[in-house]
Amino acid sequence: MKKMLPVAFLLVSGWMWCQSGFKLKVGGEVSQPLELTVSDLSKMPEKETSLRDKEGKTHTYTGVSLQDILAKAGVPSGKELHGENLAKYVLAKCTDGYQVLFSLAELDASISDKNVIIAYKMDGNPLPASKGPLRLIAEGEKKPARSTYQLASLSIGHIKN
User: Fold this and answer.
1) What positions does the domain Oxidoreductase molybdopterin-binding occupy (predicted)?
2) Nearest Cα to 148, choosing from 32, 30, 31, 66?
3) CB 3.0-4.6 Å disulfide test: which of 32, 67, 149, 161 passes with 74?
4) What's the CATH code, domain 22-158?
5) Phi/psi of residue 24, nearest 5 degrees
6) Where in the chain are the domains?
7) CB 153 within 8 A of CB 33
């Protein structure tokens, strides 16, 4: 057991070093563009959710509410979410080119109870390098198609006629 301690320390240290240069970019139609490190996110209020993997095992993910990140970027919410603001969206982009779309309305607690988080831990441990450093988790969807791996950026846009 004592031999495992240095190995565990090296693994965690290596993971932290590899992730130290990573920044989640939040931009587009925001009043405050952001570049957030995993450390920045870990200082925000934590939220948990669960998701079943392809083998049927349920995992618990820890991270930050997507709505909290949007609020920090100055994205309209609550009473501001009316009229043309209802035509705004969040486009989540991943390092492999995968993209998913959410309307602001479905993410806003004043309209919907949807739990979407930006996760940095799975079952109490940092996400594996192949899945992280961040993963977007959309709880309660019948298919996990919008629960992405290796989240790189969030772009807020507006559908125009």
Assistant:
1) 57-140
2) 66
3) 32
4) 3.90.420.10
5) -75, 125
6) 22-158
7) no
